[in-house]
């Protein structure tokens, strides 16, 4: 088995793990805060939409009231209920006065229509801005979901990397253990070979000495006359 890491290595490993945990916690807190902000903005947009619809309804009602008031007052104006004293004795003065009153009221109605058109354009612009804002909010929601998926994928890859590192360390420990066994076996073989070589050398030496001490057959004094 492999030796456990030293104290400095353990300190470095713990510091790395602590930093990783801190970063993941920060990203998680930011993601939750972003989600709460998106929910708050969505609620605000719905409230704005409700107010927008109420304002448009009020504008339509106001326009109707103005039109009805104008229709109700028109016969009195056309009848010339109010007459200038100087105009009563002049031929055609009543008709001229009625025309001026009607023309003035037409101008006022046109001005009111322009004002209503400006307000309606402002409301439509506001509605368009809200629609764009809602679309941006949806896009941000999609981006947040994509970022969340990416964070999950990174965390999965980190776990895979840790498992792969553990597997490699285990394989390295097995290889190191096998290498130690091979080294011990090789040393034992060398020791046995040296012992056998010593025995063989001793045997050869003894044999050589024995051959030198044995007399040869038929040598001097070895045969009768």
Structure, explained:
The protein has 225 residues and is mainly α. The protein has a domain at 14-168. 86% of the residues lie in helices and 0% in strands. It is built from 2 helices and no strands. The chain has helices spanning 7-79, 93-213. 0% of the residues are buried. The model is unreliable at 76-89 and 221-225 (pLDDT under 50). Keywords: Coiled coil. Residues 19-71, 137-174 form a coiled coil. Residues 205-225 are annotated as: Disordered. InterPro entries: Ig/MHC_CS (IPR003006).
Stretches where pLDDT falls below 50 for ≥5 residues?
Answer: 76-89, 221-225
Rg from alpha-carbon coordinates: 55 Å
Mean pLDDT: 73
Class from secondary-structure proportions: mainly alpha
Number of strands: 0
**Number of separate helices:** 2
Proportion of residues in extended strands: under 5%
What portion of residues is helical?
A: over 70%
Strand-and-helix sequence, N→C? Answer: HH
Coarse morphology: rod-shaped
**How would you sum up the major sheet?**
none
Q: What gap, in angstroms, lies between the N and C termini?
A: 85 Å
Keywords: Coiled coil
Coiled coil: 19-71, 137-174
InterPro entries: Ig/MHC_CS (IPR003006)
Region (Disordered): 205-225
């Amino acid at each position: 088995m492999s030796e456990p890491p030293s104290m400095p290595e353990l300190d470095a490993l713990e510091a790395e793990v602590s930093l990783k945990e801190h970063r993941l916690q920060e990203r998680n807190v930011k993601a939750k805060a972003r989600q709460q902000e998106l929910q708050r903005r969505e609620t605000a947009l719905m409230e704005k939409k409700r107010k927008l619809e109420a304002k448009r309804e009020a504008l339509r009602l106001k326009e109707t009231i103005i039109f009805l008031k104008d229709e109700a007052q028109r016969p009195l104006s056309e009848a010339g209920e109010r007459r200038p004293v100087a105009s009563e004795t002049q031929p055609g003065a009543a008709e001229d006065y009625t025309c001026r009153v009607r023309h003035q009221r037409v101008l006022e109605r046109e001005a009111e229509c322009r004002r209503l058109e400006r307000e309606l354009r402002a409301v439509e612009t506001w509605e368009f801005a809200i629609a764009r804002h809602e679309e941006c909010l949806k896009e941000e929601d999609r981006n947040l979901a994509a970022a969340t998926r990416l964070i999950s994928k990174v965390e999965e890859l980190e776990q895979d990397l840790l498992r792969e590192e553990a597997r490699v360390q285990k394989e390295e420990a097995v290889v190191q253990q096998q290498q130690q066994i091979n080294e011990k076996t090789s040393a034992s073989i060398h020791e046995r070979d040296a012992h056998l070589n010593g025995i063989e050398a001793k045997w050869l030496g003894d044999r050589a000495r024995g051959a030198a001490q044995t007399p040869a057959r038929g040598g001097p004094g070895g045969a009768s006359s």
